[in-house]
Amino acid sequence: PREGLWLCHSVCRAGAIELGPALEDIGAWLRANPTEIVTLIVQDDIGAEETEEAFRLAGLDELLHSPSEDPDEPWPTLEEMIDSGRRLVVFAEKADGPAPWYRNFYRYGMETPFAFRSPDEMSCRPNRGGTGKRLFLLNHFVTDGGGSRLDAGRINARDWLLERARACEAERGSPVNFVAVDYTTVGDALGAVEELNTRRAQEGR
Q1: CB contact at 8 A, 116 and 145
Q2: I need a surface site. Which of 86, 119, 173, 176 has the fewest CB within 10 A?
Q3: Max intra-chain CA distance, the chain
Q4: DSSP SS3 for 181
Q5: What is the rounded distance in angstroms from the CA atom of residue 41 to the CA atom of residue 164?
Q6: pLDDT of residue 92
Q7: What is the mean pLDDT of each run of 10 residues along the chain (205 residues)?
Q8: Which residues pair with 103 in a beta bridge?
Q9: Would strands 109-111 and 88-92 be described as parallel, antiparallel, or unpaired?
Q10: DSSP-derived pairing of the beta strands 88-92 and 178-181
């Protein structure tokens, strides 16, 4: 094991990047793009205090947004977040504080399943977070023995992703807020998300 804190997913030997410099890069990008908002959902396998200290050392304190303690409270508008300067939202899969900006995602949000072995298995069923939450995470990747670039080429296609997002929105009764994909450079997931955002803006949701 390497010393320090690292970002990786499941099999760290397959690839990992150091946490501190990655957080510094996020801060630099946000400061260079003052009208953008970033949300991180952290699969936390270290203590909350270690994570919080890493964000502090990276100089991100002034950018961090603290969600309301009450998950049922309305979120601020994007304009309000931009005006406040606090444009970095950080959720954890396990932790819930103690820092007010570091909240458990599943108190505020819900998701679809994520352990799909093939595209045909993908569903919209409730998973962590249950139902009826304000935020909705669409897990959109195949994990048969690890990520599949071949399957990503199919499911990251713009129309494929949009069709699934619309189906899950209809089934779950909530608009999709976050889309989690593997191999972001394969297919056109970013184009699909841009279309979802445009539609949300037009509908005022």
Answers
A1: no
A2: 173
A3: 49
A4: strand
A5: 21
A6: 97
A7: 81 85 98 97 94 98 97 94 98 96 98 94 97 97 82 96 98 96 93 93 76
A8: 91
A9: unpaired
A10: unpaired
CA distance 110 to 118: 22
Burial group, residue 186, by CB count within 10 angstroms (0-12, 13-18, 19+)? middle
* pLDDT at 203 (0 to 100): 82
What confidence score (pLDDT) does residue 55 get? Answer: 98
First to last CA, the chain: 45
Report which of 82, 57, 156, 171 is spatially closest to residue 124, judged by C-alpha positions.
171
Residues 134 and 183: their CA atoms lie apart, in Å, by 27
Q: Is the CB of residue 122 less than 8 Å from the CB of residue 138?
A: no
Both tokens assigned to 17? 């990047």
- Angle, CA 171 vertex, CA 170 and CA 177 arms, to 5°: 65
- Beta-sheet strand order (sheet of 109-111): 109-111, 135-140, 178-181
Q: How far apart are CA 83 and CA 105, in angstroms?
A: 24
The per-residue pLDDT for 53 is 97
Give φ, ψ of 185 to 5 degrees: -90, -5
